[in-house]
Amino acid sequence: MIIRTGTYLDLILLIVLVVASWYYMNKAIRGEKLPMLRKIPAIDAIVEGVGRSIEQDRPVHYAMGASGGQLYSTLVSMTLAGIAMLRYIAKLCARYGARLIVHMPYQAESIPLIEATAREGYLEEGKPEMFRLEDLRYYGQGSLTWTQGVTSSFAQEGVGLNLEVGIFYSDCPISLEMAKIMGGMNVGGTGRWIMVYAFAMMCDYVFLGEEIYAAGAIVSDNPLMLSGIVIEEVGKYFVFLLLAIGIVLAAIGLDVGTLLSM
Amino acid sequence: MSFARRELPTILLTACGVLMLLAFFTPFDAFQTVKGTLTTWTIVISATSTWLGFIYMGYAQYRMLQRNPTLAQKIYFITPFAFFLLFFFVGVSFPGDLSSPQYNWLFQNIYRQVGATIYAIMFFTLASAAYRTFTVASIEAIALLTGGVIYMLRQIPLFPYFAPWLVPLGEWILLVPNVGGGRGAVICAALAALVVGLRTLWGREITLVEV
Fold this sequence. Notes:
By secondary structure, chain A is an alpha/beta fold. Chain A has helices at residues 8-29, 41-56, 76-96, 111-124, 143-157, 172-181, 196-202, 211-220, 223-251, 256-260, and strands at 60-63, 100-103, 136-137, 161-166, 185-190, 205-208. By secondary structure, chain B is mainly alpha-helical.
C-alpha cells in the first residue's frame, strides 16, 4: 500500500484543494476577476483606531500572541496571517505618523521575520526613518512574562489601538481587558476557536475564527492572496457534500464513522 | 531580489513541506525518519534563537532608559537582567543544573508564584469583560445573555433544585449549539490553514517571500 490507511479522505480533500488552488491562482495571475468579497468591519476599524491613537497621542500596539511566532507547528498559518496584518498596520502607522509598538512572541526564531516585515511596512510608505527597533519588544520565554510585559507597556506608554491577531492562549484575556481598562480600542481575532470567546467579549471589533486569514488576504491587496479565500470556499462546498452524503448513508444504515476513517 | 533571499528559501520550504506530506500520507519509515530529523532541527534552531530575543530585549530596555533616565526606569532596566543572571547562574552552578534543589527553590518560590498571580488577574479581567458583554444592547447580546444566564444558573445547586428543567436545557446549550457552531468554525479555520499551507508550498505566500 502506498497510501497510509486512515488518510484516504484527507488525501481526497488535499487533491480537491490543490486543483482549486491551481485553477484560481492561475486565474489571479492572469488578472481575471475573482468573486466579490464582503467587507469585514474590523478592517475598517483598524484605520479608525490608528486615527484615534494619533488624536490621543498614544501608541498603536500590535501583538500576535505570546506564542504567535510558531513557524513549524500546525498553527503556522495563523502566524502568517499575523505577519500579513503586521505589514498592514506598519504601513498604516507609517502613513499617518502613529507610533507602533510590536509585542513579539516568545518564539525568538520568528524575530527576523517580524522585524523585516515591520521594517518593510515603513519602507513601502517611504518613511524608513520612523521605524524604531526598540519598539519591537521581546519578553522572554512563556506567556506569563509576555502578559506582564504587554500590560506594563500599556500602563507606561498608553494605548490608543490594541490590535491582536494570531495564536492566543490564556494570554489574550489579560492583555485585551487591560488595554480596554486603560482606554484603548481593541481589534483582533484568532483562529483558535477555544479563545474566540475572549476576543468576542473584549474587542470592539473582532475577526471571528477564519476571518483572520481572510483579513490577512484582504489587507495584502494581492490577487494571489485573495484567491485563497475562494479556494477555501471550494473546500467548504466539499465539506457540505460530505455532510450530505454522510446524512444519506447514515439514513440507510451504513456506518459513516468507519467509512470516514478509511 | 536575490536568489538567496527569495528562490532558495522557497525551494527549501517546498522541499520540507513535500517531505512532511509524504510522511503523513505514506507508510514508509524513511519519511518518518526525515520528519523526525527536521523536527529535531527546529528544536535546535528555537533554542539557539532565544539569545536573539535576549539581545532585542536588552536593546529595547536600554533605549527606553536612554529616553527616560528616571529611577523607576533604572529599576525596570535592572530587574529583568538581575533575575536572568540569578536564574542562569543558579541553573548552571549547582550539581543537577535545572534539577538542583537551589534552582527548584527559585522556580517554585518565584517563577510559579508570579505566574499564579498573573493567572489570578485573568479572572478579574474576565469578570469585568463579562459584565460589559452582558449589557443588553443588541439581539446578539440578548442571545448571549440568555444562554450565559441559563448555563450559569444550572451550575449553582440551588437553582436546579427549584427549576429542574435548567439541567437538561443547560446541557443542550452546551452540547448542541455550542458544539455544532464550534465544529463548523474549526472546520472553516482548518480549511483556511490548508489553503495557506498550499500557497506556501507553491511559493506564493507573499508574507514569506517578499521579506
